[in-house]
Specification:
The structure holds two protein chains of two kinds. Chain A contains no helices and eleven strands. By secondary structure, chain A is mainly beta. Chain B is mostly beta strands. Helix content of chain B is 0%, strand content 46%. In chain B, strands 2, 4, 5, 8, 9 and 10 form a six-stranded mixed sheet that branches. In chain B, strands 1-3-7-6 form a four-stranded antiparallel sheet, with no helix packed on it. The N and C termini of chain B lie far apart (33 Å). Classes of the chains: A mainly beta, B mainly beta. At the A-B interface, strand 5, strand 9 and strand 10 of A face strand 4, strand 5, strand 8 and strand 9 of B.
Amino acid sequence: AQSVTQLGSHVSVSEGALVLLRCNYSSSVPPYLFWYVQYPNQGLQLLLKYTSAATLVKGINGFEAEFKKSETSFHLTKPSAHMSDAAEYFCAVSRGTSYGKLTFGQGTILTVHP
Amino acid sequence: GAGVSQSPSNKVTEKGKDVELRCDPISGHTALYWYRQRLGQGLEFLIYFQGNSAPDKSGLPSDRFSAERTGESVSTLTIQRTQQEDSAVYLCASSTPSEGTGELFFGEGSRLTVL
């Protein structure tokens, strides 16, 4: 069975500051890992994904995440926050070979202050 | 349309009534998923359709929940005898079946409120 834990349901940063959203997972098989973002009044969209290639994954809008097997983590980072980054972020792990059957974390709401 | 379309966007119903939620996936996407998002929680997988294969119903919470899909087109999620705990946003997603891509395209969801 897989599970995902996102540390911090709310994260607040100042514009220009580092963004760090934490995700830890458990999986009995090599995982596929994802970050999805949900902007207000929009559907979820894929930010980036890890599928056993490079451990440092770059996504859209300047976000990146690093897969660390020893720490079972897949934290999301961005060097400099923009106001437009304010959204809810979800970490997810695939359930075995059915890659679209995802187990999601509870989400982290990112607030960016001017 | 260009994206996944869901209807209705909002539905308020009384406890005990049946509801139907509709999903129109992106054209050409053979895989279709339903997820549920309760307030303050992550998304829960409900059901998965892949082409003409038997659907994976492993996430359906009770026999009051069912879903159908005709071919690779529209899907309908039906909740019978709704309960207050069914209140949630129901999200539909579609994707191509290519192994390893993992990108789901989500609709904006149908918000269900059971009074």
